[in-house]
Amino acid sequence: MKFTKTLSFLAVTLGVAIVATEAQPAQAKATSHAVPKTLQGTWFGKYHDDLFGNVPVKYRLTKYSFLQGSSKKSEQQDARTYYANVKKYSSTKNKSYLFTVANKANKHGYWKLTLLSENQPVYLKHVKHNGKTALKMYYKSSDTNKAQTSYFYHK
User: Fold this and answer.
1) CATH match of 41-153 with 2.60.40
2) Where are the domains of the chain?
3) Among 8, 58, 83, 91, whose Cα sits 20 to 30 Å from the Cα of 151?
């Protein structure tokens, strides 16, 4: 009887260990990578919103952060900074201010950035547009579910 209890205990322990090791890769997927150097910098452009029309926007991407705000001086206090979901920020920042970066560009050259709180990806690509270096943004509108494309430029 004692042998059966010991054997059962070992089987349960082994089962828990297997489940725990299987769960770890899912947690690892939530971690992020650095923003690629080609996307880093300060970018200006217009974001199209069905409610407000074309809104002037400024994005500042650094190695581990993404600032999004208005390019109008009067509205810059409303800017939000999001942080890459890396060890340095994941334990100190609210989940609604964390994002992930894909480990590589997709087959079309877009880098996928996803806010953890919304799970809605934005795809960014460094391109030439109208003879200027630009940051091309592609995303699906949550309101209309239509694909939206915007271009942002250095000043």
Assistant:
1) no
2) 1-30, 41-153
3) 83
